User: Which sequence fits this backbone?
């Protein structure tokens, strides 16, 4: 089975802190994604990566950056956390190909609270 | 604007009753269509998908969905709901656009509650 793990299930940070969310997948998938999930808004794509050191902006990249130094690991970075970034963050991965046409495998999510 | 809509925010059904969750999309061409489920405390799991061909698609956990081009809909159904089906359900689409940028777009979700 594909396994996507996220470094923390719950995280509490202060406004202005730099925050790192880590995601690791064990199926040698080329593509990895970061979403945020908010009630009434569904999932929105922040960034995705289709290869090591490659990244593409999603629909809501403002206030976020990403890093992919190894194929299995994709990090989401909040350079200066703000309260409006309090949310559930979901990481996903999928095989190479027509990037969004294949099943995405999701991690359990990190619930981030910024106070 | 192009979008995917799940008109029901919450649905409550009795265990053993049938279920239908609605999903509508507004894109010029038929997109790729997906249903995902998120159980409490879990990530999302793919239930089924439609790319082309037979408009009735079978998925995991006894779910099926029917694509209706005339109604721009892809509704999810289950003939007999189990208490373990209580979860949030997301419809998602990948529009088929020329020029790329075809991302997976999620609906806002439908929260299913099952009464025993």
Assistant:
């Amino acid at each position: 089975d594909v396994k996507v793990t996220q470094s923390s299930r719950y995280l509490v940070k202060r406004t202005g802190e730099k925050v790192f969310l880590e995601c690791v997948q064990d199926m040698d998938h080329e593509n990895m994604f970061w979403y945020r999930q908010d009630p009434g808004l569904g999932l929105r794509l922040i960034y995705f990566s289709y290869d090591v050191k490659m990244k593409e902006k999603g629909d809501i990249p403002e206030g976020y950056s990403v890093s992919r130094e190894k194929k299995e690991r994709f990090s989401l970075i909040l350079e200066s956390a703000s309260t409006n970034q309090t949310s559930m963050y979901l990481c996903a991965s999928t095989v190479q190909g027509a990037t969004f046409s294949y099943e995405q495998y999701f991690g359990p999510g990190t619930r981030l609270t910024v106070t | 604007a192009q979008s995917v809509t799940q008109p029901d925010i919450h649905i409550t059904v009795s265990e053993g009753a049938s279920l239908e969750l609605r999903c509508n999309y507004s894109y010029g061409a038929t997109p790729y269509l997906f249903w995902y489920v998120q159980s409490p405390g879990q990530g999302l799991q793919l239930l089924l998908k439609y790319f082309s061909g037979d408009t009735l698609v079978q998925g995991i956990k006894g779910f099926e969905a029917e694509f209706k081009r005339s109604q721009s809909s892809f509704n999810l159904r289950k003939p007999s709901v189990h208490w373990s089906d209580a979860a949030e359900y997301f419809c998602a689409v990948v529009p088929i656009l020329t020029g790329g940028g075809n991302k997976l777009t999620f609906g806002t979700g439908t929260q299913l509650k099952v009464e025993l």
Summary: Chain B has a mean pLDDT of 91. The two ends of chain B are 40 Å apart (CA to CA). The longest strand of chain B covers residues 87-94.
